Amino acid sequence: MQNLMDVAPSRPVEMESKYERLLLKAKEVPPAVTVVVHPCDETSLRGPVEAAEAGIIVPILVGPKAKVTATAREHSINIEPYALVDVSHSEQAAARGVELIRESKGELLMKGSLHTDELMRQVTSGTTGLRTGRRISHVFIMDVPTHADTLFITDAAINIFPDLDTKRDIVQNAIDLFTQVGLGTPRVAILSAVETVTSKIPSTIEAAALCKMAERGQITGGILDGPLAFDNAIDPEAAKIKGIASPVAGRAQILVVPDLEAGNMLAKNLTFLAKADAAGIVLGARVPIILTSRADSVRARMASCAVAVLYAHARRRTATVPAA
Question: What is the pTM of this model?
Answer without folding.
Answer: 0.89
